Amino acid sequence: MMEIKQTTVATGLTYHDVVAGFAPELTAVLAKQAIPVEIFRNAQRPIKEAHNREEPPSFAKSIERDALSGYRAASPPSVQAEILMSASTTTVSSSTSAYTTPAFWERLWRTSGIQFVVLFIIASLVYGSQPQVGAPADALAAFYNGDRTRILLAVFLFGLNLLNLLWFTTAVRTVLADAGQDGWGAAATVASAAFGALFLLQITVAAVLAYSIAGSGNDTLTSGLNDFAWALVVLSSFPRAMLIMAWTFGLWRAGQLSNAFFTTGVAVLVLVLLGGSTWMSGGFWAPDGVYSRLISPVMGLAWVVVVSRVLLTRSPATRAGW
């Protein structure tokens, strides 16, 4: 038990002296009831432990509050204003500190891989099914001219989504740099830039066709640009494969990718790379065939999800670069 003695000094401040031990009144009561001190102390221990867990924090705050109020009362107005300004600054900084730390921004950019996959699916659904290679003029006009607004909206979403991929690749590079694998990180940066250039050219062709060319009546130019867009899909297989390779080998060498995931990544790399050979004039292995148009992109998106999961399950390193 503790005995608390209160003392008030001339300045108006109150001090509390805490004396450990039993108060004389309590000792007298225990002696009269013939209760041994040790038995009483053991019986009170659970109560004291619960008290110590709950009461001291609020008690300390009350002491701090009383001390500050007394100090403010005895201080000139300029000092009081300084105290209030310091308290408000502390409150603002503590409320916003969670969003200004490097760890917050790095984790945010690590999620851009998932954002890329989701927005790519949405943009693809908005864009619709592009006419195949050698499609007739009426089919081209119906798609590019009839669905002009929808295509231009999809082009905007695709362009916006390209930023997600570039940010995600940068996040992967920082992880690889921390693990001493910056060579693979640099390869990933180059591959993402090459893919971004080809993809930007592809959506530019679609935008130009929908904006003016398809409605101009120049069927030969419209058909040629449509076929050119499919050729860009095939050619983009090479930087996509290099990007997957840089992620897979880099994270594996950094010890953040298991052997099973590494084997899966190599398989995805080979399958995406094979998309660069889809030059048949028609069917499954054509530029507009199922493999180039659907299977290869889906495998690439799936691997982006895997790499995102690897990054999000690791705590960001402490750095000042974000």
What does this protein look like?
It is a single chain. By secondary structure, the protein is mostly helical. It folds into two domains: 94 residues, no CATH class; 210 residues. 73% of the residues lie in helices and 4% in strands. The protein is built from twelve helices and two strands; from the N terminus they run E-E-H-H-H-H-H-H-H-H-H-H-H-H. The chain has a two-stranded antiparallel sheet. About 2% of the residues have low confidence.
Write a compact overview of the structure shown.
The chain has about 325 residues and is mostly helical.
Secondary-structure blueprint:
Blueprint: E1 2-8, E2 14-20, H1 24-32, H2 37-73, H3 77-96, H4 102-110, H5 112-127, H6 137-145, H7 148-178, H8 182-213, H9 219-235, H10 237-253, H11 259-274, H12 290-312
Helix pairs in contact: 5-7, 5-12, 7-8, 8-9, 8-10, 10-11, 10-12, 11-12
How many beta-strand segments? 2
User: Radius of gyration, rounded?
Assistant: 34 Å
Compute the average pLDDT: 82
Sequence of strands across the biggest β-sheet: 1-2
Strand content: under 5%
Distance between the termini: 53 Å
Shape: elongated
Count of all domains: 2
Q: What pattern of helices and strands is seen along the backbone?
A: EEHHHHHHHHHHHH
Low-confidence blocks of residues? 91-95
Separate helix tally: 12
Main beta sheet: 2 strands, antiparallel
What structural class do the secondary elements suggest? mainly alpha
Work out the helicity level: over 70%
Features of the shown structure:
322 residues, mainly alpha, 2 domains, two-stranded antiparallel sheet, 12 helices, 73% helix
